[in-house]
Please model this.
Amino acid sequence: MSPSKVAFSGNFWALSDFQAAAASPCQPDFRTNLASAHNLVEKPDSLYVVLQAPSRRSRDPLQRICFPTLDDAQRFKAAHYLKHVELFEDGQFVVLDGDRVVGATSTIRVQFDFEHVDHTFADIIQGGWLTSHQPAGGWLYGADMSVAPDYRGRGLGTALYAARQETVWRLGLQGQVIAGMIRDYGAVKDRLPAQEYYRGVVEGRIRDSTLSMQLGVGFEPKALLANYLNDPSSDNYGVLLVLDAAKDLPGASRKLAMSYIRLQTDVPGPLAREMLARRAAAAPAGLGRATDVVVERADGGLVFDVDGNTFIDLAGGIGMLAVGHSPAPIVKAIHQQAAKYIHPCALVTTYEPYVRLAELLNEVTPGTFSKKTILANSGAEAVENAVKLSRKYTGRPSIICFEGGYHGRTLLTLSLTSKYGLFKSGFGPFAPEIVRLPLPSVYRTPRGLTEDEYVGFGIRQLETALVTQVDPTAVAAMIIEPVQGEAGFVPVPSRFLRRIRELCTEHGIVMIADEVQCGMGRTGRLFAVEHYNVVPDLIVMAKSLGAGMPIAAVTGRAEIMDSAHLGGIGGTYGGSPVACAAAIEAVTIIRQPAFLAHARRLGDVMREVMDGWKARWPIVGDVRGLGPMMLAEFVLDRESRAPATPESTLKIVRAAVSNGVVVMRAGLYSNCIRLLPPLNMPEDMLREGLAALGSAIETAARASG
Model:
């Protein structure tokens, strides 16, 4: 059985996918030692916070053991626990000893009126444990706390309350509110009124096995409640208690509660190493892997691995995830579309999601001319379509591309791609009629030239090439990334890009903007060319277009898009309705002014922090990019700008991952670290991730002397 979906809260693991619980017991490898995380009175080495859901059968016995006299209808059951996981996954905790569930607690968020405390149990949780969750609730309500009788006195109850308190701190709630039985009152009810027993326990004159422990934790009693639960051990009485967020608990860490990163094992951990070994045995050696992170689930800007580690994701699937991992509107759109039909094929039928997405892209892409859109599966396939249509429209064979460009790995797109050693070595011969020209990367401006002079020289090289290498009348298209991705987040100089537009217009050449990586809000605007006030004839999109679903598009002038003969373009899987549904939602989200404004704010934060790296550490030779598409380039020497080795850069990547942040390399010399975080990432999450990466860079800087 694979590990369940989990989310970490402080020193505890919150169980987030009880659906994985079938009949199989948990495996010990899926747990983390509880004793090392909390201050237990005894420290049994076998006690673990669960990382995988126990079986349904193992949940109910704990309730029967802990509450043997409670009316069965009011006992917390597996079905209730499942519902709580669905309503509020962050607050559900289970403790195991071997395969045995020995402790558990469940929570929901509620608004609570302390002016009226004479509630029944159902009143307190406002409709019962299946319906009362209020996402904006001010209090964390503990709907269940169970510790097996033979494990009491070891600090498990305190540890579980500590886990709850860390959830309170992390979510900014007012505190915990609970209603618990006075477990020992039933035995003395014939000689002691309930109110007197309650006062005696509160004043410390009477010891109650449950209430005294809760008071010792720090809970403040608010009221004695009659008709709380149908249980003779308490004579149906309960006590309303609160634990304010201002209070500390043994074993609870405010620092950890407010941190997104959670590291429980080395990276890779034991389960990750097992999966990496399986990958090595099953998949080709040439399949690249930027990190050793083995994902169990991901949400927003966080990645949770199979060993229970939580990472901040600054790689974003190489730019696929502008809206983050598994955003609810995207997931909902996928589910709804899949329930209707999955893929009748646009070459066979017509369906609304394809048409709607095409209409949407025709609307949002730059240019006021008439446009059309074709959908494909990947950026490379979309580039192929753009090149084919350009050749068909112009009747010309040649394509001009630029040094540093990355356009894909198919035969044609690999022919267009630079960085020979990593991507092209041994894969030739390549497609003909490709002309590759220099592009001025201003960081590497030659000595003796100003940046402006260097850009001017690059423009002259471009103009000269149209005489010495290819005649303009033979050129179908010029293709360029407005911000080169794989080359190291090199923004094309404005004068250079504008000159490309002028030459294309002058000579009837199709200008193709490859915005597979730099588009869809990645630079703080919907498309990178918007920063330049340049309108291409065709624009290529993919990656964040589908929010992680495989989809790409070419949108451009209708006369170019219509140039192919009937049946000349298209593909079986192009424009999958499920992927289209995701893309429609993604574009709708990304195009919103507030979303793009937040993206630009993230870019400002990245620039601020990364410029600080450059000021402090000489190994950071350059910080560049556009908006929140940022990169740090590492050098051996600032003066010569000699690139750091790929191996030394990889060490920084590995150190950063060990610090809890997912990053990856880039650059012509593989000496850069690129940052492509989800554009809706909270600012504090981004800053924490940058701090983890900065720590790795600082370690490398000190080692380099």
About this structure: Confidence is low (pLDDT under 50) at residues 1-57. The domain at 6-257 is CATH 3.40.630.30 (Aminopeptidase). Residues 497 and 547 are 28 Å apart (CA to CA). The first strand starts at residue 6 and ends at 9.
